[in-house]
Amino acid sequence: MRGIRPNLVAPSVHEVDYEALRSRGVRAVLFDLENTLCPWRAGELDPPTWALLEGLRGRGLRLAVLTNAALPSGHPLLRALCERGIPVVTKARKPLMRGFRRALGQLGVSPGQAAVVGDQLLTDVLGGRRAGLLTVLVDPLTPRESLPTRFNRKVERLLGRRLRFSSPSP
After folding, report:
1. What mean pLDDT comes out for the span 5-10?
2. Where exactly are the structural domains of the chain?
């Protein structure tokens, strides 16, 4: 059970206490993509989320996106993130550690200097904990999700997680 218990919990990426993370030695944040930064299959981030990411970078945090999705190399969101200097690791196969290690290597930080922010216990939190990162669990943005994620949600409910859905920022 400890392996799937997040270090911190917040309603959304916009309500995470990033200064508290920095005070704990965090220099880099890995974000899950779907239902964390944007709704499933949205294909873009809303302006408040872009502003959040730019603000975090402006405060000296290194950022990356880590997703199990198989985004094609020409995907507009992938290009937009990369153009802003935010590396994206696709097909990360979370909770396996390979994707986490790849993102950490791209950011040039050790696991003890990084946090992962995501909406799933069985991928983001479990993988982050296994990789040695601080973990932050946020509520999923919408109930619309892929079939594997719906299965994971059933397991999460068995483990006692009550889901709340954040509404995406306007």
Report:
1. 92
2. 2-158
